[in-house]
Amino acid sequence: MMRFTDALVKTYEKYAHQRASHSPDEFKIRERSEFIKFLKAEARETLLEIGCGHGQDAQFFQSQGLRILAVDNTPTMVKLTIEKGISARVLDCYDLDKINERFDAVYTMNCLLHIPKQDFDQVLGLISGRLNEDGLMYLGIWGDQDFEGIWEQDRYEPKRFFSFWKTEALLEVLQRSFRLEYYRRLEPHEGRIFNSFILRKYGGSK
Question: Which domains are assigned to the chain?
């Protein structure tokens, strides 16, 4: 069965090395640092990164003493992550239930941008299922507009599928599966809003 994510994989395969040559954005580094503060305060030990790209964030978390599993659906990205000495595997976020272990934390930066809105609850449920009790998730995502489809202004070819949410609508969906611990609305580029969330799995849910 062909998934809509197959087209994304083709695009990210094409641009993997180009993306690996870029330094991370300052605002993303700052938000990542906020998350590590939460993890250290609670003595968290294990982290699953979903949509790890070429592994720069996974490498940072590993350097902070966390045990990492990084997943991405693009084979070249996973290869680049493994080359950094990180445990990584090719896995689509629709297949997270194929991971047998649970983690203290999940980190996902702009990966869920590519999930159709109708599937968002399903994917959040899969993420929740990989978290230990009271586990924490960091979610960074561009948005605050209502859009779903192929982004015609995309500079990548083939152009990618995106879903952008109005922040209030996204918060509503997230809070069905998680409790909000931290939220910051950023405007790193004029007119472009980035939402930064730290969320906690509801306690007592198995």
Answer: 4-201 (3.40.50.150)
